[in-house]
Amino acid sequence: MQAPDNPAARRPPFDRDALxxxxxxxxxxxxxxxxxxxxxxxxxxxxxxxxxxxxVAVVAVAAGAAAWLAEHYGFPIILxxxxxxxxxxxxxxxxxxxxxxxxxxxxxLRWGIVALGFQVTLAxxxxxxxxxxxxLLAIMGLSFGAGLLGARVSGQSRYAGILAGGATAxxxxxxxxxxxxxxxxxxxxxxxxxxxxxxxxxASALAMSLYPVIAxxxxxxxxxxxxxxxxxxxxxxxxxxxxFSFSDAAGSEATIIKLSRVALLxxxxxxxxxxxxxxxxxxxxxxxxxxxxPWFIVGFVGLVVLGSAVAVPDxxxxxxxxxxxxxxxxAVIATAMxxxxxxxxxxxxxxxxxxxxxxxxxxxxxxxxxxxxxx
Length: 375
Hints:
The chain is mainly alpha-helical. It is built from 19 helices and no strands.
């Protein structure tokens, strides 16, 4: 007797990486067929805007839950959003959610990075002085190099090292999102990206609790403790919060140090974009074409310059900071929903090696700067 036909058996296996624009934060930089891309973009503009609603609604509900949990339990909101996104990744199987997830993972990311530009001025960086600033550059460089070394030792691609090292050196999850936008999912899987975000967020949360205690046990002065915490903790909120738990003076010092690292996000993204762009078939292109940068990097740098040239009201800075956090949270959740938990588990402990190496290097380098009397 012939078995009844089962339509599910004929269905091709679900390929998460085949989803449109899944985690490809600005993959248009790598499209070879520009005319085809323009035609597809025009076709998408003709579609109803309501197509975004299912995906955006799921992401918004998860973001609200992450905000509530962070407020009531004091856990890092980005990490909570990432975990909730991973838990909801089954929703990405529904085709109706794809346009909304695409919008949240790309557009929200870009504008979130741009909004960060108002949080730091060139005057704050100048106030550090030449030697502390040079030490900060050295710490960031060593952290970045340690991420690359950790990726090499653990048998991963250098793109994993760039992501982990850059996120550790600059500003944690925000930098990781921006760097992954440059790297693209063609070069680094969404699973590796999600695992790196988890590692960076956990390392920041752990450091926020441990580093102030270590600074106290070592008998560091307020300025020294502020430099250590501001120069070595990844995420902005954890760095500033950890320093203020030591003392108000240490918190003020750490704020300047950390915001100086944030100000260097633009130059680092520019250098990485030029470096990686040369491997995407751009070697034969004119120099002026290879130095073309994504618009959101230009926007970030432009707001830093504008905020340095004119007096931006505190209310505007506060509003843009809130908007940046919200947009980046939406981008993290949408990207996590695109990730496959099975692939993340298959990566194993080796995938966390670059983050661990970069975190250790940043702490040891900051301690060495204090030992040399930079602060």
